[in-house]
Amino acid sequence: MSGNRELLESTLARTASEDRAALIAYLPGGFPTVDGGIAAVKAAVAGGADVIEVGLPHSDPVLDGPVIQTADDIALRGGVKIADIMRTVRETHEATGAPILVMTYWNPIDRYGVERFTAELAEAGGAGCILPDLPVQESALWREHAEKHGLATVFVVAPSSKDARLAAITAAGSGFVYASSLMGVTGTRESVGEQAQDLVRRTRATTDLPVCVGIGVSTADHARQVAGFADGVIVGSAFVKRMLDAPDEAAGLAAVQALAGELAEGVRKR
Predict the structure, then answer these.
(1) Does the structure show a pLDDT above 60 at 183?
(2) Is the pLDDT of residue 218 over 90?
(3) Distance (Å, whole) CA 117 – CA 120
(4) What is the 3-state secondary structure (H, E, C) of the chain?
(5) Which of 9, 53, 91, 231 is catalytic?
(6) Which of 16, 98, 187, 209 is least surrounded by Cβ atoms within 10 Å, i.e. has the fewest?
(7) Angstrom distance (rounded) from CA 188 to CA 185
(8) How far is C-alpha 214 from the chain's CA centre?
(9) Residue 252's pLDDT is what?
(10) What is the count of structural domains for the chain?
(11) Model confidence over 138-150: pLDDT tens digits?
């Protein structure tokens, strides 16, 4: 079975045709439980998320801030495995029809086996992977298997990326480009600044791929601000924080759906 890269591409084309940014929600797989994580993805889509990133919890998350690290720790203590992430992708895609990506560090894929991982992700209906720590110059093996299975390869660019580096990264990627709004780890911020707008401008000069901005986006105002200059708005920590702060799972799911609704409204007002 081929993966759903085309669904991701058509979804981003549709949101652009509606003159708005896409809302991309990140939720860790296996948090608070595997079933709870699946329910959270469904809640985010019900609230208005266009695309979902399912995080594969990792014990050494270099890009993740304290909120997502806390969720990852809960998932890992619960015994989450790659098979659970594949189940999350399959069940949420089948239930919602939304494109589902996996965001993961390279080490778990390397240990699992690239061919096995890409084949299973495609079979589960996944749209692709975001690989924040895989250097483009070392990505040929991954890209070969991802291409074979119809999966997008999303690389991360940062404000520190020089223009030549941006061109190399965007030439190797597919689906969209993940633009990190600032230097540092994930988490909510008071504002998402001019660095992000400049990075989107420089990235667009190298590619026709959609450029989606994440890290620090947490409110409808942030979403509106980013939607003014980016093709997609990526929100993770704010969803996870709502779940961590909720008194029980039902309240957490309601909070995820409500936040998705607020953010979905934000990306439509630009």
Answers:
(1) no
(2) no
(3) 5
(4) CCCCHHHHHHHHHHHHHCCCCEEEEEEECCCCCHHHHHHHHHHHHHHCCCEEEEECCCCCCCCCCHHHHHHHHHHHHCCCCHHHHHHHHHHHHHHHCCCEEEECCHHHHHHHCHHHHHHHHHHCCCCEEECCCCCHHHCHHHHHHHHHCCCEEECEECCCCCHHHHHHHHHHCCCCEEEECCCCCCCECCCCCHHHHHHHHHHHCCCCCCEEEECECCCHHHHHHHHCCCCEEEECHHHHHHHHHCCCHHHHHHHHHHHHHHHHHHHCCC
(5) 53
(6) 16
(7) 10
(8) 8
(9) 97
(10) 1
(11) 999 999 999 999 9
Check which CATH number belongs to the domain holding 112 and give it: 3.20.20.70
The structure's pTM equals: 0.94
Backbone angles phi, psi at 116, to 5 degrees: -65, -45
Residue 14, amino acid: R
Q: Does 53 qualify as catalytic in the annotation? A: yes
Alpha-carbon distance values, 97 to 11, 89, 100, 109, 132 (Å) = 11, 11, 9, 25, 25
- Look at residue 1 and tell me whether its pLDDT is greater than 70: no
Residues 9, 50, 64, 120: which is the catalytic one? Answer: 64
**Total residues belonging to the chain:** 270
Residue of 255, 190, 188, 268 whose CA lies nearest to 223: 268
Q: Is 64 a catalytic site residue?
A: yes
Six token digits for residue 85: 């992430």
User: Tokens 């889509």 belong to which residue?
Assistant: 45
Cβ–Cβ < 8 Å for 81, 57: no
Judged by phi (left if over 0) then psi (alpha if -120 to 50, else beta), residue 215 lies in: left
Q: CA of 80: how far to CAs of 37, 72, 129, 247, in Å?
A: 11, 9, 18, 23
Domain containing residue 55: 5-267
Angle at 176 between CA 174 and CA 108, to 5 degrees: 70
- Distances in whole angstroms, Cα of residue 70 to Cα of each of 57, 234, 248, 250: 10, 19, 16, 19
